[in-house]
Design brief:
With 217 residues, this protein is of the alpha/beta class. It has eight helices and nine strands. Helix 1 packs across helix 7.
């Protein structure tokens, strides 16, 4: 299986990339990002796009891939709805439509979030993004991620998220006991993504408990 990965420099993407590189069934990973990951591996290739809205002249580089793991996202904190829509809906669908044209049979996995489709602005935008992706790809899966526990030093690019993880790190074991279905590790998330791309999943919109079931060996 050959995989295209968006968001490899973020906390989610770092964990997914690690699992892809450790999985013998994943033969190649193309990481598309604004900046280099700064990591070398025989299976890893990079496509640097300073302008992530530039989809030109990459047809041949993106052909022949079996799955896309879209882990790219931004926080809605302090953002207007038009700006958040541009960086969430417009950017995701821009790449998704491009990939659907050249790899129509690929599996597209989108990292969304718990509460998507709710009343909050970000939840509405994410909900519209999910609906569009489900209509675009026959094999599209929405990963509504809950609390993510980093297992191998994965770090968020967002400052307030890094601070929150530092403050609440001692409480992870307690959260795991009180709400076991609310938390998933970066290892489990990566394995769930690979397994879904390889075998499919029972449903197309997956909540955190579903992801745990898929990512647990």
């Amino acid at each position: 299986m050959k995989v295209i990965l968006f968001g490899a420099t973020g906390m989610v993407g770092q964990g997914v990339l690690r699992e892809c590189l450790h999985d013998d069934g994943v033969t190649g990973v193309l990481a598309i990002s604004r900046n280099s990951i700064g990591q070398k591996h025989p299976k890893l290739h990079e496509l640097i796009r300073k302008d992530m809205f530039d989809f030109s002249a990459v047809d041949e580089e993106l052909r022949g891939y079996d799955a896309c793991f879209f882990c790219l996202g931004v926080s809605a904190a302090g953002m207007t709805e038009p700006d958040y829509t541009r960086l969430t809906y417009d950017l995701t669908l821009g790449w998704a439509r491009f990939l659907a044209r050249i790899n129509p049979a690929m599996t597209f996995i989108y990292v969304s979030g718990g509460g998507t489709g709710g009343k909050a602005m970000w939840a509405q935008v994410k909900g519209r993004t999910e609906e569009a992706l489900l209509a675009l790809f026959p094999s599209a899966y929405m990963f509504r991620l809950g609390a993510l526990r980093a297992m191998h030093g994965e770090v968020s690019k967002t400052r307030w998220t890094r601070i929150a993880y530092t403050v609440f790190r001692p409480l992870w074991p307690l959260l795991g006991m009180l709400a076991p279905g609310a938390m998933i590790t970066t290892e489990e998330l990566g394995r769930a993504m690979i397994r879904t791309a390889r075998q499919g999943a029972p449903k197309r919109v997956l909540e955190n408990r579903d992801l745990l079931a898929l990512g647990t060996i």
